[in-house]
Amino acid sequence: MKKLILLVPALFAVSLFAQIQTVSGVSETKKVVVYTTAENTDSRLSVTGEFEFRPMNQPLETQTCVFVEPSVTFQTLLGIGGAITDASAETFAKLPADKQQEFMTAYFDAEKGIGYSLLRTTIHSCDFSSGSYTYIEEGDKELKTFTIAHDRMFRVPMIKRALETAGKPITLYASPWSPPAFMKSNNTMLRGGSLLPDYYQSWANYYTQFIKAYEKEGIPIWGISIQNEPMATQKWESCIYTAEEERDFLKNYLGPTMQREGYGEKKIIAWDHNRDLLLQRTSVMLNDPEAAKYVWGIGFHWYEPWSGGAPMFDNVKVVNQAFPNTNLLFTEGCKESFDINKVNDWNLGELYGRAIINDFNNGCVGFTDWNILLDETGGPNHVMNLCFAPIHGNTKIGELIYTNEYYYIGHFSKFIRPGAKRLACSPSRSSLLATAFVNTDGKTAVVVMNAGDEKVSYFLWVEGNAVEVVSPARSIQTLVY
Hints:
Blueprint: E1 31-38, E2 46-52, E3 54-55, E4 65-76, E5 79-83, H1 86-93, H2 97-108, E6 118-123, H3 149-153, H4 155-166, E7 171-176, H5 200-216, E8 223-225, H6 243-260, E9 267-274, H7 278-286, H8 289-292, E10 297-301, H9 313-322, E11 327-332, H10 347-361, E12 366-371, E13 373-375, E14 391-394, E15 399-402, H11 404-413, E16 421-427, E17 433-438, E18 444-450, E19 456-462, E20 465-471, E21 475-480
Parallel strand pairs: 4-19, 5-6, 5-12, 6-7, 7-8, 8-9, 9-10, 10-11, 11-12, 13-14
Antiparallel strand pairs: 1-2, 1-21, 3-20, 4-16, 14-15, 16-17, 17-18, 18-21, 19-20
Helix pairs in contact: 1-4, 2-4, 5-6, 6-7, 10-11
């Protein structure tokens, strides 16, 4: 078997932010700090240059540029992060104490790591659990036996560690994969099926019981999604809702129940599935005023290429244009079909870079990766749906394996912070992808990705001033000023 190469650990001894001067615009400072991650180099979120803006009037057509217009702003960033599943928590518990601390710092320390600010978790089990389970005894329609004792073993402690490491609030939301078996048409949590009408109220109550139990543990729940992937019949936990069924469950049961139980301020995310049906599901939900009043936003995943073709990024733009007052949140994505011999493949990170840039540029307010940690098998997963994660824990030898997914996500999460506003940004050549945000402290972060096999020299051009930067082949850069 190919020997695994541990890339540069994520414990940055010196805060990268400490090297950046606090500024509020090009007119007050000339310095741009460039951070680079590139294939076939040692650069991993590394400072690779400091440049000064210099006057540059009309660029020539032969010059490649990335243009930023700071006077034009768009959506406000909610956060960037990933999911703490049972699989993540069980793997984390098997790591040595020093590796647990390294892992927490790598993800949740905003200075020494990449500063995750957004988390997702599951309401009872999903495929990335060691087995199916719920929080009640089978048949308990009144939820009298409700307990999260299962989660207290691994998942609750890991989430608490993450919150403590971050040292500041993290937005945490939760999603169900399936109601308990007795509430469903097929009498199993697996293989699709639908929620029986007799259990609509009981299932709505289940969400509020979950929120209450987690907050009793000291874990604030920001919001919930109605159903993970409501059009996917999977061999694991799954449940089917048509658009009309999801709409009616929300407006007649879940929304009113959240209000009645004192959770009206919690955010509710609809759809939580792929970009392909995004417009239709959003239209059905939001064109009903009684349902729409409960909807904070629409969640989406990236798995639509299962039917062939490219990711349908334009669908995000169309929904943003059609419903500009509704938040669009990327709620899940990962590279499937885990192979331990491919943990160093460069296209893993590029999958993330391409999606994040396109979705942000089309109006998305946040990005949530799937499992933040999996073991050396790509699990545990009780139906063997094994996948990649940014970091894998080799539980046999107690080591962490950093894929370049981690560094690519870090180019966004470390430098684009909650509350940042997206700026108008456009490259002049298709060889580059770019997006830009201005943070609440006035620092601007421009992310530039080059997925080509040749280096590209370009100018970052802002208000008649520019710096010249070289983008290495197969690289991603964040330019901060």
